Amino acid sequence: MVQKAKILLVDDRPENLLALEAILSALDQTLVRASSGEEALKALLTDDFAVILLDVQMPGMDGFETAAHIKRRERTRDIPIIFLTAINHGPHHTFRGYAAGAVDYISKPFDPWVLRAKVSVFVELYMKNCQLREQAALLRLQLEGGGKSAVGDSKEPVGLLAELSARLAAVEEQAEALSKQLDDESADAAAVATAAHLERKLTGLRRALDALEPGTGSGAPSVPSQN
Predict the structure, then answer these.
(1) Is the separation of the CB atoms in 32 and 10 below 8 Å?
(2) C-alpha–C-alpha distance, residues 158 and 122, integer Å
(3) Which of 106-112's residues contact partners 24+ apart within 8 Å by CB, and which partners?
(4) What is the pLDDT of residues 95-149, one digit of tens each?
(5) pLDDT in tens, 153-166
(6) DSSP E strands: which ranges in the chain?
(7) What is the largest CA-CA distance in the chain?
């Protein structure tokens, strides 16, 4: 069973959180509520999130300050943040949102279809990255175990490489389709950049597997970093 991605919804008004849940429920992912910046930071200590929808105008710690804390933490700095605001103070206010690390800045009332489409892109990128990490972890396990599978059964090296290559090929195919979709839809620059980063990591992992093919060398290559 594929694990669902978590989406963090941050707003001090319960009716706004309810509206976001209604809009995003069709994505069939796990929606997590936070009614303040402090509550959001607490949730980020224990869970991994695909994207954060963050209200700008909140009492106490506002959206800008919350985003600054998120971006300072190594664990959470790469989570995409979409700012939501009911007040439009002009270009300078929007620029402040992007400067705080947001990938998008949307004024209320917003188009539910547009918001859902933007969130779905980051959820899909998150899922592809999770698949890549799983394949990399499996490769490390196989290399460190001297060709033994995760359950302890020995496998022929050629068969093992073929299995890993097939699994990686499936992720590569999905990543390529996602990149084409982003190009066709003229997606946000941040989403395109994230997809390109994913493809680079896939290329590194493919090279590591190719280097293990018989006749390509005796040394085991290092698996590319996932950072």
Answers:
(1) no
(2) 36
(3) 106/82, 108/84, 110/84, 112/23
(4) 666 666 677 888 888 899 999 999 999 998 898 888 888 877 777 777 766 555 4
(5) 444 555 666 767 77
(6) 6-10, 30-34, 51-55, 81-85, 104-107
(7) 64
